[in-house]
Amino acid sequence: MPEIPDLEVIKAFLNERIVGKEAVRANEVRPAMVRSLAADDFPSDVTGRRFGTVSRQGKMLTLPLEPDRLLVIHMMLTGALQYCTPDATVLKRTFFIMGMPDMDLRYLDERQMGMVYYVRPDQLPQVPRLEEQGPDAYDGGLSLDEFTAGLKPFNGEIKGILTRGKFVSGIGNAYVDEVLFAAKISPFKRRKELSAADIERLYVAIPEVMDEAINILRERMVPDIHVKVRDFLKVHCKGGEPCPRCGHTISEITANRRLTSYCRSCQPGMLIKN
Fold first, then answer.
1. Predicted pLDDT at 16
2. Alpha-carbon distance 259 to 64, whole Å?
3. Do you find a cis peptide bond into 223, omega within 30 degrees of 0?
4. Which domains does the chain have, with CATH numbers?
5. DSSP states along 21-79
6. Rounded to an integer, what distance in angstroms lies between the CA atom of residue 109 and that of residue 111?
7. Residue 155, Cα to own-chain centre: how many angstroms?
8. Residues 121-142: pLDDT tens digits?
9. Where in the chain does DSSP place strands (E)?
């Protein structure tokens, strides 16, 4: 699932290349992916419109198509955007193509799990989850006091709180493992068990982890923004390898189809509480 670092790199990449460009052709290679609330025929309606500045809200990207259309993309687990020449091979997982004079922007989805909405600005409230997200985890809009206060209404394990997106948005399963490792907090620690020092470390760790990942991804994702790069992460999917901080073996468990990777030495805490 693309998370803040991936999406920030994709957003910046697209804003350098497509803003002001006209969509001169559009094709739904595999219909039914785009939920078009703004027009009956998405390809014909989008053709002739120019791209505006791409923005990110949590785990969603919004691509304006001037003057009054928005393409809201929630890639979920397997979605991706590909920027390529028109003569590039159309991959089997391609769902739709928006062609500019010299380049294509294509949406790919291995398992058809993403959600793509084509709407007018006044229809944004109809896009599921868009307005249900908490404050963005990366935009610097929360002070430590606000972060602490915002966390209080939530219960349960801290990993679940962070990934659900209601407390803060934009962090998914991979980067929550990285954030909690950086903050030295067990993913299974309950919110009520977090000390003030834990919360402060968490508050500091989120932007630090995001910044580090963004800097790496700028070098490694561009221009292939459809390729997921995760091999540089410190603990996520590194089960059985030595912890880069203390050398102990990284642990992994899978519960509810979600992998959790952590260091039992650096992130002490009980897995199950009675």
1. 98
2. 35
3. yes
4. 4-126 (3.20.190.10), 144-262 (1.10.8.50)
5. -B--EEEESSTTSEEESS-S-HHHHHTTPEE---EEETTEEEEEEETTEEEEEE-TTTE
6. 6
7. 23
8. 999 999 999 999 999 999 989 9
9. 25-28, 34-36, 50-51, 55-57, 60-66, 69-74, 79-84, 94-99, 104-109, 115-119, 251-255, 258-262
- Quick check: 260 and 159 in contact, CB under 8 A? yes
Contacts of 108 (CB under 8 A, 6+ apart): 79, 80, 81, 82, 91, 93, 94, 95, 226
The residue type of 156 is G
Task: Give me the helices (H) in 152-195, please.
Answer: 158-164, 173-183
Q: What are phi and psi of 52, to 5 degrees?
A: -100, -165
- Chain CA centroid to CA 139, Å: 14
- Report the interhelical angle of 196-220 vs 4-17 (nearest 10°): 40
- Per the omega criterion (within 30 degrees of 0), is the bond before 67 cis? yes
What residues form DSSP beta bridges with 202? none
Q: What is the spatial distance between Cα 258 and Cα 265, in angstroms, rounded to a whole number?
A: 21
- Cα 18 to Cα 51, 54, 193: the distances in Å are 6, 9, 47
Residue 164's identity, in one-letter code, is R
Q: What digits encode the pLDDT tens for the residues 59-104?
A: 999 999 999 999 999 999 999 999 999 999 999 999 999 999 999 9
- The predicted pLDDT at position 272 comes to 52
Taking phi over 0 as left and psi of -120 to 50 as alpha, with beta for the rest, 127 belongs to beta
What is the rounded average pLDDT of the residues 250-272?
Answer: 88
Q: Please answer whether residues 98 and 46 qualify as being in contact, where contact means their C-beta atoms are separated by less than 8 angstroms.
A: yes
> Any idea which residue has 């993309």 for tokens?
73
- Total-model pTM: 0.94
